[in-house]
Specification:
By secondary structure, this protein is mainly alpha-helical. The chain is built from ten helices and no strands.
Length: 198
């Protein structure tokens, strides 16, 4: 899936933004930033390629399948992914929500929905959705990593971000999410030594 590849391709840029944002937030009031979020990173403004265009034929075919199979959550997730990758977040939200009505215990779809909420400028809904994901699977490291990013960038809650990232590290230190969380936490601690313990 395109967004999984993009996540790790831009993680270095994210951590540079994280440090810059943290340092800048000491000098002026912080505001939400379109920071990369692991399940669905939004590119920082300027110099980034446009999202791929929506594959209209694939969208129509999946929508026809969804209509013909009202209990098929997987097709709805695929539609959410398709719209998400094209950065059409309202449509992605609609399809992820539809999938979760069928299968509310899909932690991956729930986390993807939370990320889509964040990109639709709804950080509180994103955090609520991540809470649901963690109720379904308390060890879901992608959720913890995303939760930390939304806490840091969407809510300016650095202590909460550090807590989420530390949990991801504790659960799976060698996973891609654990390594990304460690990098984020190290950057946060270097900018704010009192945040998140040492």
């Amino acid at each position: 899936m395109r967004r999984d590849a993009v996540v790790f391709a831009i993680s270095g840029a994210f951590f540079g933004l994280l440090v810059g944002w943290i340092l800048g937030s000491q000098q002026r009031p912080a505001r939400p930033v379109g920071a990369p979020v692991v399940q669905a990173p939004a590119a920082p403004a300027g110099g980034q390629p446009a999202p791929p265009p929506l594959d209209e034929n694939r969208a129509r075919a999946l929508e026809a399948t969804a209509q013909a199979t009202p209990t098929d959550a997987g097709t709805r997730v695929a539609l959410g992914d398709l719209y998400f990758d094209a950065e059409r977040f309202p449509e992605a939200i609609r399809w992820y929500e539809a999938a979760l009505q069928i299968d509310p215990n899909d932690a991956n779809a729930s986390t993807d929905l939370g990320v889509a909420y964040y990109y639709a400028n709804q950080p509180d809904r994103a955090l609520q959705q991540f809470d649901h994901s963690l109720t379904v699977d308390p060890t879901h490291t992608k959720t913890l990593l995303n939760q930390g990013i939304v806490r840091a960038f969407g809510k300016q809650d650095l202590a909460g971000a550090a807590e989420s990232w530390q949990k991801a590290i504790d659960l799976a230190p060698e996973s891609a999410e654990g390594r990304a969380a460690k990098q984020a936490l190290d950057s946060l601690r270097s900018a704010h030594p009192g945040v998140g313990g040492m």
